[in-house]
Write a structure and sequence with these properties.
Layout: H1 6-9, H2 13-25, H3 27-30, E1 34-38, H4 44-51, E2 56-61, H5 65-75, E3 82-86, E4 98-103, H6 116-126, E5 127-134, E6 137-145, H7 148-154, H8 170-178, E7 182-184, E8 196-202, E9 213-221, E10 226-238, H9 248-259, E11 280-282, E12 294-305, E13 310-319, E14 327-333
Parallel strand pairs: 1-2, 1-4, 2-3, 4-5
Antiparallel strand pairs: 6-8, 6-10, 7-12, 9-13, 10-11, 10-12, 13-14
GO molecular function, one term: protein-arginine N-methyltransferase activity
Function: Arginine methyltransferase that can both catalyze the formation of omega-N monomethylarginine (MMA) and asymmetrical dimethylarginine (aDMA).
Protein name: Protein arginine N-methyltransferase domain-containing protein
């Protein structure tokens, strides 16, 4: 439950404003109620909840940012409403049930360094039946990408350095550039086809055991002739009440519907049953950028694809045994 994102929090306007909108949209469920903010960071979400009329807000964070959060609460004359608890959700004591859990728990690749485990613990320890969790659900996507500029900048540079052939450096350059997943921003133009749903998380029902290993089989059909440089991953989260939290099948089927409709434009990639009702924070390439950007897994060597060529394989994400907030990625493709 150590804090990952407090230092990013306020400057990420897309994220902060979406959370604020979600709190105001659910004000009737927050006003006069008890809230827990899991991994409160600077305390901004706790303050938004207090401004929305919460009776009491427990702002919990294991890192030392909790000290600053407490000062922020005092400076805004909210000490009677917002109680900062410096400690892990698993360890702190709250002597009452709560009506609402709010958390900015998402990590890179959704689950890397995420605090979802702490949200689950808070839910199971304190949340009243029928209580509200914000965000309510999350979906991780993957798609094949082409990114010649990135490959050229990192690799092709070594073929001719001031007229000197340094191609002997290529294997090392590829290892340095692509051995680890990269956090960077791409555009919708880099994406070769419709995304695949890797994992849907319903925050009302997800268990700690579900997070230990996530496996999916994928099949893509490239929409264009282009070099395949790797795969991009991104996620979105929705802010619904318990009754409207969609099932995994609903999310997946909306994508299948899109992928079979070749005339569907890029902006419709995230079709939903009730798009007007869903408040969504998206980190997709075609949406406004956030500090999460996209997570890229690059190949050492690109694969030339023809239009309509199939790419299939499997992906497994497993929690590290040393630290459950770290992840191992096993990717197979043909």
């Amino acid at each position: 439950n150590a804090r990952r994102g407090g230092r990013h929090y306020v400057p990420d306007r897309v994220r902060t404003e979406t959370y604020r909108t979600a709190i105001m949209r659910h004000q009737s469920s927050i006003a006069g109620k008890v809230v827990v903010d899991v991994g409160c960071g600077t305390g901004i979400l706790s303050i938004f909840c207090a401004q929305a009329g919460a009776k009491r807000v427990y702002a919990v964070d294991a890192s030392d940012i909790a000290v600053q959060a407490n000062e922020v609460v005092k400076a805004n004359n909210l000490s009677d409403t917002v109680i900062v608890l410096h400690g892990r959700v698993e360890d702190v004591e709250i002597d009452e049930e709560v009506d609402v859990i709010i958390s900015e728990w998402m990590g890179y690749l959704l689950l890397y360094e995420s605090m979802l485990g702490s949200v689950i613990t808070a839910r199971d320890r304190w949340l009243k039946p029928g209580g509200l969790i914000l965000p309510s659900n999350a979906t991780l996507y993957m798609a094949p990408v082409t990114h010649s500029d990135r490959y050229s900048d990192s690799i092709d540079f070594w073929r001719n350095v001031y007229g000197i052939d340094m191609s002997a450096m290529l294997p090392l350059a590829k290892q340095c550039a692509f051995e680890e997943p990269c956090i960077e921003t791409i555009s919708g133009e880099n994406v070769l086809t419709w995304p695949h749903v890797v994992k849907h998380v319903d925050c009302y029902t997800v268990t700690l055991g579900e997070l230990e290993s996530v496996t999916t089989k994928y099949k893509f059909k490239s929409m264009m002739r282009a070099p395949l440089h790797g795969f991009a991953f991104w996620f979105d989260v929705e802010f619904n009440g318990p009754a409207t939290s969609p099932t995994s099948n609903q999310v997946s089927s909306s994508f299948i519907e899109s992928s079979n409709n070749q005339s569907t434009d890029v902006s419709q990639r995230k079709k939903r049953a009730n798009p007007s009702e869903a408040l969504v924070l998206s980190t997709a390439p075609e949406d406004p950028p956030t500090h999460w950007q996209q997570t890229m897994v690059y190949f050492y060597d690109p694969i030339d694809l023809e239009q309509d060529q199939l790419i299939d394989g499997s992906l497994t994400l497993t929690q590290s045994k040393e630290n459950r907030r770290f992840m191992n990625i096993h990717l197979e493709y043909t």
